Amino acid sequence: MPELDINALKDELGRRHGIRADVNDPAFAIVALNNLVLEHAINELVSAVAQQLTRFEEAVQRVETRAGKTIAQQTVALLEQVREDLRKHTARIKEAHSIYLSDKVLGRAGIIASLIRELLSAAALLGLGVLIGVHYLRSW
């Protein structure tokens, strides 16, 4: 805070209000004392604001750190999900490609032969199940 100029105050008092005062007047001592008290209060306020600003900046740093960790964890989880989805889609594509290639190699006759084998296997399993069921019903 700039130094208080008593002479300038005395001249201003005379100019504005028509009051003549001496620089040794007790009123100027009160003004000077008031100026000192005001300087002290301003210094305390500046110090308190600086401390609060430091605390605020530290709190912001902690929040940024927590937010960064949270975002990193969420990003890792999302990337793991994307990897898993890519694995599943890749497996489906490979399976579809394999079927396409087998269809291409076997042709229509190969597909029909494969279906007949599967139907015969299913019929054999059904017949075996019926025989086992009949056997257990007789022994009951």
The total of helices stands at 2
Give the total of domains.
1
Helix percentage range: over 70%
pLDDT below 50 for ≥5 consecutive residues: which ranges? none
Q: How many β strands by DSSP?
A: 0
End-to-end C-alpha gap? 111 Å
What Rg, in angstroms, do the CA atoms define? 48 Å
SSE order:
HH
The rough form would be described as rod-shaped
Tell me about this structure.
The chain has 140 residues and is mainly alpha-helical. It has one domain. It is 89% helix and 0% strand. The chain is built from 2 helices and no strands. It is rod-shaped, with a radius of gyration of 48 Å. The termini are far apart.
Can you give keywords for this protein?
140 residues, mainly alpha, 2 helices, 89% helix, 0% strand
Could you give a quick summary of the protein structure above?
With 140 residues, the chain is mostly helical. It has one domain (6-138). It has 2 helices and no strands.
Topology:
Layout: H1 6-17, H2 26-138
